[in-house]
Amino acid sequence: MEMSENWHVNAPWAQLVVSTEVPKKLFQTTLKLTDEIYADENRDSAGAGLAGQISNEYYITQEKLIETGLMNYFHEMTTKYWQTVLTNGNMWQYCDKKFEHGPHGFDYACKIVSAWTVHQFENEYNPIHNHSNCKISAVMHLKFPKKIDPPVKDHTGGLDGNLIFTGMGDADEWCTSSVMNCKAANVGWLHLFPASLGHSVYPFKGEGERRSLAFNADVISKKQVDAIIEQEKIQQENQKGVN
Amino acid sequence: MRFGENWYVHAPWAQLVCCTEIPEDKLIKFMAVSNEVLDEAEASLATNDDNFSDGVIPLPWTISDEKFVKYDVRTYIMEMVTVYMETILSNGNIQSNLDQILEGGPHTQWHTRLVDAWVVSQKENDYIPVHTHHNQKESCKISGILYLKVPEQIETPNTDMSIRGGKDGQIVFTGMGGADPFSTTVQFNVPPEVGWLYLFPSTLNHQVYPFKGEGERRGISFNVDVISKEQLQLFEGITQEVPNETE
Q1: Rounded to a whole number, what is the distance in Å from the CA of B145 to chain A's nearest CA?
Q2: Which end of chain A is more exposed for a tag (fewer CB within 10 A), N or C?
Q3: Average pLDDT over chain B, rounded to an integer
Q4: Gap between the Cα atoms of B122 and B218, Å rounded
Q5: What's the per-residue H, E or C state across A185-221?
Q6: What is the phi/psi pair of residue B52, to 5°?
Q7: A contacts of B203 (beta carbons < 8 Å)
Q8: How far apart are alpha carbons B148 and B33 in whole angstroms?
Q9: Helices (H), B14-104
Q10: SS3 A241
């Protein structure tokens, strides 16, 4: 990964968390969309399939994502995230070998599998979990209470309501840390990460809402897609022959 | 870590390998350092066994600090180590983590010290088994490797680091992690390229594969220790107290 001119950083053994600031206009659109979903009597609860000890979690339909421009943005950011992963050390050559029908180079397609909102209030939390049936996940922070109560213990100050990533590795105490604290109060940021990466959200005390939007995406090489289409064609031809 | 406009990448649980291509004039100077070290080593061993013959592990030849100063490359090494250190500190919450786990925090300034350096002259069938630089006689935290010579047969014309073969003469870093087989791999194979400097934590495992044929694979390796200004102040406090204890 080229960090700046003539300075490349590599850690192909690590799950990467990438953060980017959402364009202001799209951020406002997303706030409005999630307000509407929250106010909708027929909102579709996502709670049954999620780990959060949270009462208000709702699916966002594909139509709404397309209508608001979020689908395009999520596609674009997921693609950029995957390109970042591929340039991490020898990841793209590793993927060429690992995935069937290679070499794949940088020619991959992505699909947004699902998206949902999380409306978190006082004392609610999200235990450590990861996301299944997808490869890349993301969280966009939308709202945070203006003022939350001070933490019970002073030395844990600044943790309440935060998103915590817990990564595997941490071989060197001096230059690594297995935990990454991501401040949820920094609204308007999108964080992308491998779906397999453990993460949790701490509860907070006080009035107000902590709101986020999450989505899952799948990534597949275009050659693999072509191979699947080809296989389906053969199956259909065979089926015709049988009939 | 900022990677371009509005794109920040973090993996604080990972040991980072950074690389940079050194300027041409510096490469010439480092080459001169290695030539001088090897010439001196050869002269001193003329009456002993031939240490330049094939062997499992190429003998490393120590580079004195004065040699780097003489050829005016010491400052460059330390500058690159500083950039590496800054990269680590910008990786997720590493800065705040160090403030917590190391005594004397918050740590505002970091000092670096070149611990040792050596030339590795590798010939046909030589290899270096998996090792780290962590458990040396002296404490070190950051290590570096600079490539000076690469035999034609293992030289890669571009950065296409094929993992399907052609591993001869490559250095392989093996990092801890690899939690996700889709987006991670525990191995990082690097074909040596003349003029490229690699910096990594001294705790990171690495090895070098042998190669066949003529030519020399030559590099300079070094270890650097890092300590914060605040930690130094703590040590100074301790050393000042010692005479009082013995009184």
Answers
A1: 15
A2: C
A3: 85
A4: 6
A5: CCCCEEEEEECCCEEEECCCCCCCCEEEEEEEEEEEE
A6: -95, 5
A7: 171-172, 174
A8: 11
A9: 24-44, 65-70, 74-89, 94-101
A10: helix
* Alpha-helical segments (H) within A18-122: 24-39, 62-68, 70-86, 91-98
Question: B14 contacts in A (CB within 8 Å)?
Answer: 11, 13-14, 167, 169, 176
Using only the alpha carbons of chain A, give its radius of gyration.
20
- Cα separation of B244 and B247, whole Å? 5
Q: Is B128 helix (H, G, I), strand (E, B) or coil?
A: strand
Whole-number pLDDT of residue A152: 76
Axis-axis angle for helices A24-39, A70-86 (nearest 10): 120
Structure tokens at B32: 């001169």
Instruction: State which residues of chain A have pLDDT below 50.
Output: none
The pLDDT value given to residue B43: 78
Task: Measure the CA–CA gap between A131 and A133, rounded to whole angstroms.
Answer: 7
Distance CA A143, CA A207 (A): 13
Q: Kindly report the pTM of this predicted structure.
A: 0.88
Query: In this structure, are residues B25 and B202 in contact, taking their beta carbons and an 8 Å threshold?
Result: no
ipTM of this predicted complex? 0.86
* Chain A contacts in chain B segment 97-116 (CB below 8 A): 97-98, 101
Per-residue model confidence as pLDDT tens digits over B158-213: 444 444 456 889 999 999 888 898 999 999 999 999 999 999 999 999 999 888 88
Residue B24 contacts A where some CB pair is shorter than 8 Å: no
In the numeric block, the tokens 């390998």 are attached to B17
Pairing of strands B205-208, B128-131: antiparallel
